[in-house]
Amino acid sequence: MEKATINVKGMTCGHCEAAVTNALKELSGVSEVKVHLDNGKVDVTFHDGKVSFDQMKEAIEDQGYDVV
């Protein structure tokens, strides 16, 4: 398993946290998601062979947030 921290701009509330968490957990290969609203970071634990950073980025951006 791999771990990554993704910087996400625009998350401000519990709904934002839920939207990003659910979008990432729908991806095959993502096992754990922890959103930190205070600093705009998302910690993701994932299987590198099943999901790419670009797929995770797209899932977040599809929810209306910017990956920076």
Automatic annotation (TrEMBL):
Keywords: Chaperone, Copper, Cytoplasm, Metal-binding. GO terms for cellular component: cytoplasm. One of its GO terms (molecular function) is copper ion binding. The keyword Cell inner membrane does not apply. GO terms for biological process: copper ion transport. Its main location: cytoplasm. It is found in: Cytoplasm. The keyword Manganese does not apply. Residues 2-68 form the HMA domain. It comes from the Bacteria. NCBIfam families: chaper_CopZ_Bs, copper ion binding protein. This is Copper chaperone CopZ.
